[in-house]
Structure formats: structure tokens, C-alpha cells
């Protein structure tokens, strides 16, 4: 039977739909119009109720078999697809993003849930290890030691404004936390509350269809105080966040100040440097120029992987690149940005660069027609100026980028050394550049979570070998990723069982259970 999912403006607290205080409306950023209905704002007691239900659900949910948990993730994916066109229509209205982009993002979202279902079934994430007892060992016997990973507990997820599906209510943080066995309480983003509610209802339906405890999932709408109360709640054991540096740091401070501090996995701010090497510019300056502008203006530049900084060595080929990039940007019509606040922040960041004495505007897009939009813009400066003013390396969230002219490779490496942590670093190279690029790669490994060649950083593959992370301020914890299957590790911790009788061991660590799954036996890999 086909299910129907509606937007009512409710909070989804376990199986309960509540919404006393309906004061928030979504805005269509393309027109500035308010959208119906009004959404409920979660009170402190709503937050506490969602967390209590999540805590009650934890032991039951984490005890689900891999098959049950994988089937739940797949049911969420099926239900999201069942929402149908109204999901895409509402997301378009709330974000100003084009239909094709949102359809692609929906595919990424359900693909991500299905990938985590495969991960759960495969069992590598359990990281099973068995060191059998050595009773005869001298001078001391070794006990029987068995290790597995268990989930941390209820997780708070902050949906991102710029990916209303893939980084929001059922996005990567939620998918990886649920895959790990953690109940999830989402603080939805006010930029797309209707989209969030539809997806939240799809998850909640899957909870009921799979016979899971109601507290496995809740969705709260609200402002800063709702999110702060959620992170403070003692039942929450970890936080996933994508957004601004200020927001991530504020939530990290709240988490660190709790009587029991908890990890906050915040993906925050990145300018994603691109290094244009001489032979690459000589071979394909024009193609690099247009490729750059396509990546820069994708989604009105509202990607945390947006290429916001370029480095290149002075040459006539660099001038060819600049001409091609200028031609590609000039006349390009700006798309609406996600919220009036994000648009205002973009205009402020651009104004600071326009007014900067050491920065020259290279090109900009066509003038804006309509609200919440501004032309894309491309600046240049000299390496010495860049090194003298650290503000030039800060993120301007939107379609703005700065080219830094370098004298030679040594200067390019010197500026790279000064960069803050990044999600990505990109090399445009040809074979003749490899020897010089080899000097830069070790520097970039220290700076970024992903290093790529001859592509553009926007558009993150959801896969096993992806890292969407990096040193601060790209994220709050460079040891992990928010995209890809490795993201599950954020919500797990190891437990070692020493000499426990077989009957007290978890099923997967008993002799028969462990043989059926990949594991390390005395340090040697066994199983698939
Ligand atoms: N690196 C990236 O991937 C992204 C970066 N950004 C950056 O963030 C800016 C603003 O965009 P936005 O998406 O709203 O990001 P924010 O960081 O402002 O907000 C993200 C989420 O965190 C919450 N939040 C923020 N600060 C606090 C706080 N002090 N206490 C409790 N909750 C908090 C917000 O709640 P509430 O809505 O109630 O404020 C929202 O739910 C952009 O201009 C851009 O610079 C945005 C998107 C992605
Ligand atoms: O580029 C992508 O696909 C993902 C970008 C991202 O993580 C973000 O903008 O928050």
C-alpha cells in the first residue's frame, strides 16, 4: 500500500506529533515569500522527551541483528522515494535549488542509506578481534581477549542548510549513526523545515514498520536554544554537525562544558585550494578556466568543497586561464542563495575583498535579478599580500574565489604551508609537473582530508575510500570523515571482553559467531 507523507508543521518526538508553539515559517529564497504552514518550535521539555525516548530505545536498537538494522536503513530509503514529487517540489521552494540537483541529491541520500545497509551486513565495522588464551605462556599466562565495537548511544544530528537531503534529516550523519546502532535526535535546519518533516515522517514510518522502539528517531525544529539544549542533554553521547565555524565551535564548547563531555563531529569551513601547475596551464588553460567557473558557481557556490582559493605561477599561460575563467563567469546569471542570512554573509565577505587594497577584481557574473542573489566573483592578489593578511584565506561561503599569483614553486609551497586545515586540495598537473607536485603533496597531506588531481573538489563520492574531513577548521576532528562508510566509526567505541564465559559473550564474539564474520585472530586477518 502506498503511504502518504504530509507537512503539518509538527515536531516528531518518537511516535508522537506535537506542536504547541507554531511560530516559524520557511521562506522561499527565490521570491522572499513566506511558506505555509507554521512550524512548531521545540521547548526544553520537548528536547528532554526526545532524548529520554532515545535513551530508552538504545539497548533495544543496538541489539538488533545486522539484518534487521540493514533492512531498517533500506526501508528508510524506500520510504523517502515513496514521498514522491512533493519532496522535490518542497525542497525547491525552500532552498531555491534546481529540481535536477535535488533529484540527484535524493538519489545520493537513498544510495547512502543502502550503502550503509551493506556495511552493516558485511560486519567489518564490528572490528572483531580475538586473542585466544595462552595458559602455558611464561612468565605469565595470557587471558582470552575478544574485542568488538559498540555504539556510543543517542546521537544529536544538526542538518545542514546547503544539502537539504544528503546532509540533513536522513543525511550522512543520521545514516552512519543509525548504522552504528545509535538512536538519532535531529535538530532540523530552519532553512528547509517542510523538507525535513517529510523525510522525518519517512524515517518514523520505517521505525514502526520495522518494529523498532519509537525513540530510535526524533526530529525537533527550533532555533539556537533548541540545539544547545540537545547538546547539553546528558542522554546525548555524540553530535554530528555541518555548518558554520561559529556554530560548530559553539556546539563544541557546550559539549566540552558538560559534566560528561562528548565528541562533536563538526564539518565547518574550508576554502579548498587549487594549485595550477605550469605544464597543466600550458596544455589546457582554457579548459581549466571553464571547469573552475563551473565548479565555483555550482549551487550558487554553496558547497563546503567550493574552490575558494587558487595558486599559480606567473606566466602567459596563467593569463590565458584568467581570460577563459573571466569569459565563463561574465554574463552568468546568479542563482538564489539558500537563506537571506547566507546571502547577507556572502555580500559582506565579497565587500571586504572588493575594498581590500591588495585585492583586484578579475571578473564577476551578470547583475542579480531578484532577491537573495549576487553575482559570482573572482579576485586576484600577490603571494606576498596573501601571506601578510590571514583574512584573505578565510571562507566566503558562496561563489567567490581568490587567485594568488606566485613567483615560483617555492613560493607556492610557502603559501601552502600557511593554509589552515582544508577538506580538499586540488592539483591541476601534467606529467612534466609531477616532480614539482611531489614537493607539495607532503604539505597538502598535513593540510587536507582529500587530495585530488585534474578534477574539481565539488561533488563528493559516497564510497568506502572517501574522506570528507580534514584538520581544523575544516572539521573539529581530523581523524574521521562525514561522508563515506568510514563515517560509521565516529559513533562506535571498542569494548574488550577478558575471559568472559561463552554464554556471557555477545553472539558475534562467541566461537561460532566470530567464525562467520571478518575478524583478526591473534593479529591475522580471517574471513572476507
Ligand atoms: N562548511 C559548510 O559545509 C557550510 C558552511 N556554512 C556556513 O554557515 C553560514 C550560515 O549557514 P547555516 O547553514 O545557517 O549554518 P549555521 O552554523 O549558522 O547553523 C547550522 C545549524 O547549527 C545551529 N547553530 C548554529 N549556531 C548555534 C549555536 N550557537 N547554538 C546552537 N545551535 C547553533 C543552527 O541553528 P539555527 O538555525 O537555529 O541558528 C543550525 O541548525 C554560511 O554563511 C556559511 O558560512 C553553511 C552551510 C555549510
Ligand atoms: O561537494 C559535495 O558533494 C558535498 C559538499 C558538502 O559537504 C557541503 O557543502 O556541506
Automatic annotation (TrEMBL):
The answer to whether UniProt assigns keyword Transcription regulation to this entry is no
Record-linked CDD domains: ALDH_KGSADH
**Presence of keyword Oxidoreductase:** yes
Where the record annotates domain Aldehyde dehydrogenase, the positions are 22-470
The alphabetical list of record keywords is: Oxidoreductase
Any Pfam family the entry gives: Aldedh
- What EC number(s) has UniProt assigned to this enzyme? 1.2.1.4
The main enzyme category here is oxidoreductase
Per UniProt, what is one GO molecular function of this protein? aldehyde dehydrogenase (NADP+) activity
Superkingdom is Bacteria
* UniProt-recorded name of the protein: NADP-dependent aldehyde dehydrogenase
Q: Which organism is it from?
A: Rhizobium miluonense
For this protein's source organism, the top of the classification is: Bacteria, Pseudomonadati, Pseudomonadota, Alphaproteobacteria, Hyphomicrobiales
Amino acid at each position: 500500500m502506498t503511504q502518504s507523507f504530509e507537512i503539518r508543521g509538527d515536531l516528531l518526538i518518537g511516535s508522537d506529533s506535537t506542536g504547541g508553539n507554531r511560530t516559524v515559517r520557511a521562506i522561499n529564497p527565490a521570491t522572499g515569500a513566506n511558506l505555509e504552514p507554521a512550524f512548531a518550535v521545540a521547548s526544553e521539555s520537548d528536547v528532554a522527551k526526545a532524548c529520554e525516548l532515545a535513551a530508552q530505545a538504545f539497548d533495544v536498537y543496538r541489539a538488533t541483528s545486522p539484518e534487521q538494522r540493514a533492512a531498517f536503513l533500506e526501508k528508510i530509503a524506500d520510504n523517502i522515494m515513496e514521498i514522491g514529487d512533493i519532496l522535490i517540489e518542497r525542497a525547491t521552494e525552500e532552498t531555491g535549488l534546481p529540481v535536477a540537483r535535488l533529484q540527484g541529491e535524493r538519489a545520493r541520500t537513498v544510495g547512502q542509506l543502502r550503502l550503509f545497509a551493506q556495511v552493516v551486513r558485511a560486519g567489518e565495522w564490528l572490528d572483531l578481534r580475538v586473542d585466544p588464551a595462552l595458559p602455558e605462556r611464561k612468565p605469565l599466562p595470557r587471558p582470552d581477549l575478544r574485542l568488538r565495537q559498540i555504539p556510543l548511544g543517542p546521537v544529536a544530528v544538526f542538518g545542514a542548510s546547503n544539502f537539504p537531503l544528503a546532509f540533513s534529516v536522513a543525511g550522512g550523519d543520521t545514516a552512519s549513526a543509525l548504522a552504528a546502532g545509535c538512536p538519532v535526535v535531529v535538530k532540523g535546519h530552519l532553512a528547509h523545515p517542510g523538507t525535513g518533516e517529510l523525510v522525518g515522517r519517512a524515517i518514523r514510518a520505517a521505525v514502526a514498520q520495522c518494529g523498532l522502539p519509537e525513540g530510535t528517531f526524533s526530529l525537533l525544529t527550533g532555533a539556537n536554544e533548541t540545539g544547545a539544549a540537545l547538546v547539553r542533554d546528558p542522554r546525548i553521547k555524540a553530535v554530528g554537525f555541518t555548518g558554520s565555524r561559529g556554530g560548530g565551535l559553539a556546539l563544541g564548547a557546550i559539549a566540552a562544558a558538560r559534566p560528561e563531555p562528548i565528541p562533536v563531529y563538526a564539518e565547518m569551513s574550508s576554502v579548498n585550494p587549487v594549485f595550477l601547475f605550469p605544464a597543466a596551464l600550458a596544455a589546457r588553460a582554457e579548459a581549466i578556466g571553464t571547469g573552475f567557473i563551473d565548479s565555483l558557481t555550482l549551487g550558487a557556490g554553496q558547497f563546503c568543497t567550493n574552490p575558494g582559493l587558487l595558486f599559480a605561477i606567473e606566466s602567459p599561460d596563467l593569463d590565458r586561464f584568467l581570460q577563459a575563467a573571466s569569459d565563463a563567469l561574465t554574463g552568468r546569471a546568479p542563482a538564489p542563495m539558500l537563506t537571506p542570512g547566507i546571502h547577507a554573509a556572502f555580500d559582506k565577505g565579497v565587500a571586504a575583498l572588493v575594498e581590500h587594497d591588495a585585492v583586484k577584481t578579475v571578473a564577476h557574473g551578470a547583475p542579480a535579478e531578484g532577491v537573495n542573489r549576487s553575482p559570482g566573483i573572482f579576485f586576484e592578489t600577490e603571494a606576498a599580500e596573501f601571506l601578510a593578511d590571514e583574512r584573505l584565506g578565510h571562507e566566503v561561503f558562496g561563489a567567490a574565489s581568490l587567485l594568488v599569483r606566485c613567483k615560483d614553486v617555492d613560493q607556492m609551497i610557502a603559501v601552502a604551508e600557511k593554509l589552515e586545515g582544508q577538506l580538499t586540495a586540488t592539483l591541476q598537473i601534467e606529467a612534466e609537473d609531477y616532480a614539482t607536485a611531489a614537493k607539495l603533496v607532503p604539505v597538502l597531506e598535513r593540510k587536507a582530508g582529500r587530495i585530488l588531481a585534474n578534477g574539481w573538489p565539488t561533488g563528493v563520492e559516497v564510497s568506502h575510500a572517501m574522506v570528507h574531513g580534514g584538520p581544523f577548521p575544516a572539521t573539529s576532528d581530523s581523524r574521521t570523515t562525514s561522508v563515506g562508510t568510514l563515517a560509521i566509526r565516529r559513533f562506535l567505541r571498542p569494548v574488550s571482553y577478558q575471559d568472559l564465559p561463552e554464554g556471557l559473550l555477545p553472539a558475534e564474539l562467541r566461537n561460532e559467531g566470530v567464525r562467520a564474520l571478518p575478524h583478526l585472530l591473534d593479529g591475522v586477518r580471517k574471513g572476507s
